[in-house]
Q: What sequence folds into this?
């Protein structure tokens, strides 16, 4: 199984400042079809997960443009350009390039 | 507004069975692969299963293979998860999700004696 490792596990940030979360996979996530199925999800407290980014860098419908994804192969990053109060929650990366699909452990974003 | 609404959760004894449903609306359900993902209390996300748009292909996590069955009825816009021989460690909120898309609100399954 592909292991997804997120860093940091906890990220205290100041409102209005940028934040960055890293996700590393134990194997390349490049699929045989040429796509890389790496997604980022946000889970606010008491809420279900919500898709933010799919295929490394594609923002899902309704996701603010302060969220961006980048990376390739085994190393990926989620960036928030300016953290807002509603960004508090846990962020997960997920790979869907190989079965079984797997998630990172989650990174808790909190306000300083 | 696309909607996914799970139902069928509840309390069941170890060894028991439950069938979860996920009703989809406001999108072309038959065109998309669908997942089940679960989250144990206070824990992270665990992928459970996926089914292709036409139901022809299904994949499972090792922890549920042989006990859970994912299926769909495209005429009813509904996704299912049949869960047999339930274990205490299957206790979780179960979410259905469209591949690269929206997630439902979840349904809680509690396995307890």
A:
């Amino acid at each position: 199984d592909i292991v997804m490792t997120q860093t940091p596990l906890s990220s205290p940030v100041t409102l209005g400042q940028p934040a960055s979360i890293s996700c590393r996979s134990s194997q390349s996530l490049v699929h045989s079809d040429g796509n890389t199925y790496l997604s980022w999800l946000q889970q606010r407290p008491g809420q279900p997960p919500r898709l933010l980014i799919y295929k490394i860098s594609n923002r899902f419908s309704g996701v603010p443009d302060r969220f961006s994804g980048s990376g390739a192969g085994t190393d990926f990053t989620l960036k928030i350009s300016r953290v807002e109060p509603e960004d508090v929650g846990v962020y997960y990366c997920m790979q869907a390039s190989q079965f079984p699909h797997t998630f990172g452990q989650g990174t808790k974003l909190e306000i300083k | 507004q696309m909607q996914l609404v799970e139902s069928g959760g509840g309390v069941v004894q170890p060894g028991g069975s439950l069938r979860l449903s996920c009703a989809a609306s406001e999108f072309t359900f038959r065109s998309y692969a669908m997942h089940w993902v679960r989250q144990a209390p206070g824990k992270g996300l665990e992928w459970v299963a996926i089914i292709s748009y036409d139901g022809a292909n299904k994949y499972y996590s090792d922890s549920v293979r042989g006990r859970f069955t994912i299926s769909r009825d495209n005429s009813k816009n509904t996704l299912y998860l049949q869960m047999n021989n339930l274990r205490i460690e299957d206790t979780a909120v179960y979410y259905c999700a469209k591949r690269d898309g929206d997630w439902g609100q979840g349904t809680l399954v509690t396995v307890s004696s």
